[in-house]
Specification:
The chain has 388 residues and is an alpha/beta fold. It has helices spanning 2-20, 55-70, 84-96, 113-121, 147-162, 185-203, 216-219, 226-240, 255-268, 284-291, 303-318, 326-331, 366-372, and strands at residues 44-49, 74-79, 101-104, 126-129, 141-145, 173-178, 207-208, 249-252, 276-277, 297-300, 337-340, 353-356, 359-362, 376-378, 384-386. The protein binds beta-D-glucopyranose (BGC).
Length: 388
């Protein structure tokens, strides 16, 4: 485990160096929708979240709302039940309600072009929050975590924990992949980040995939649904592991899918080994599984800080500024963030992005990273509870 912590520290250091280094402020962004008038105080913010049924969006929604309100804005916060059509009409209503700026997490990143043209026509700036909105020039900025690194951390955790070594082909392990929603631009980044780390070991025969399912489309989970991940893993276990084949790793892109996979393994897996299961988000149910040894790790993204970046960015836009990498320093954030004008292209050009840094959380560093840091409190039942 020391090795894993050392890896985490080394990675964090590398990421801090990147944050302080070359990728910051390469060029000034072109905000595509300037606000119709500068809004010093008391403007109205429309926030469109995908669904209440996935834990993190409830936290994002309340952090954003509280922080905007603390700065004197009024907030209209809507959730769209993971229904892309409903989200379009929810955003139309926010526009009709004369919001000054929109913060949007797309249900389907490809389906908002028309409604966002209406926003652009009304000079309403749009921040694409966490998920990149595709095929539109109506978004001004993207705020997220380094999504590729999320997957990379998962893959590196597997390599480190199993002690994989390309020079040693004497041992092999079985792995299955579960990825996210194809309608979410992040899902490919997560999967590729993990797969790029692990594929050399697959090619060398050190990692084997008994189901043969290694393509994103084969392992994707519509809407990140726990039940879909559960069903698919039950099918895989029945088809490829019934004869006593050992499953060593279930690489899951996030916690909602890890939850389903963990349930399927709990009920249908015949082996006696404990399966290494990855995740992302730090959902309470998954942290409880970490404490109980049923999930091995999660990649934690401090969404409270993602909200801080978004609120400072929105505030600057509404004051008529054109924020760039300088916002990182001038805001005085105590967490790492990179300004990146290269990585995220939404098919309409590169979108200037503020990217925060994800970290690995395991049973061993959970207290330090999540509880001592104030993001969670430790419940009397021994399980962490999210703050906010
Ligand atoms: C987010 C993840 C989340 C997933 C499902 C992604 O866009 O980045 O944090 O687990 O959506 O809600």
């Amino acid at each position: 485990m020391k090795k894993v912590i050392a890896l985490v520290l080394a990675l964090s250091l590398a990421l801090v160096l990147v944050a302080c280094g070359t990728s910051a402020s390469k060029e000034s962004p072109k905000a595509s929708a300037e606000p119709s008038a500068t809004v010093a105080e008391g403007g109205k913010i429309g926030i469109a979240m995908p669904t209440k049924s996935l834990e993190r969006w409830n936290r994002d929604g309340s952090f954003l709302k509280n922080q905007f309100e603390a700065k004197g804005y009024t907030v209209d916060l809507v959730y769209s039940d993971n229904d892309a059509t409903k989200q379009v009409s929810d955003i139309e209503n926010l526009i009709a309600g004369k919001v000054n700026l929109l913060v949007i997490v797309a249900v389907d990143g490809e389906s908002l072009s028309t409604v966002l043209q209406t926003a652009a026509d009304s000079k309403i700036p749009v921040i694409s929050y966490d998920r990149l909105i595709m095929n539109t020039d109506a978004i001004s900025y993207y705020v997220s975590f380094d999504n590729y690194t999320v997957g990379k951390l998962q893959g590196e955790y597997v390599v480190e924990t199993l002690g994989l070594d390309l020079a040693d082909t004497s041992k092999s392990y079985n792995i299955e992949f579960t990825a996210g929603d194809p309608a979410d631009n992040n899902a490919g980044f997560f999967f590729n980040g993990a797969f790029d780390v692990l594929s050399p070991y697959i090619d060398a025969g050190i990692l084997k995939v008994p189901s043969g399912q290694t393509k994103f489309e084969e392992v994707a989970t519509a809407q990140w649904k726990t039940e879909k991940a559960l069903d698919r893993m039950q099918n895989i276990l029945a088809s490829f592991y019934a004869g006593g084949t050992q499953l060593d790793v279930a690489l899951c892109s996030n916690d909602s899918t890890a939850l389903g996979v963990t349930q399927a393994i709990g009920s249908d897996y015949k082996g006696t080994n404990s399966v290494l299961i990855t995740g992302q988000d730090g959902d309470e149910a998954n942290l409880a599984n970490l404490v109980d040894g049923k999930q091995s790790m999660t990649v934690y993204k401090a969404v409270a800080n993602e909200a801080v970046v978004t609120v400072n960015l929105a505030d600057a836009i509404l004051k008529g500024e054109t924020p760039n990498g300088d916002l990182i320093k001038s805001s005085g954030w105590t967490f790492d963030c990179t300004y990146d004008t290269d990585t995220y292209d939404n098919n309409n050009g590169k979108v200037p992005s503020y990217l925060l840094v994800p970290i690995i959380v395991t049973k061993d560093n959970l207290q330090k990273e999540l509880v001592d840091s104030g993001y969670y409190t430790m419940g009397t039942d021994g399980y962490p509870k999210a703050v906010g």
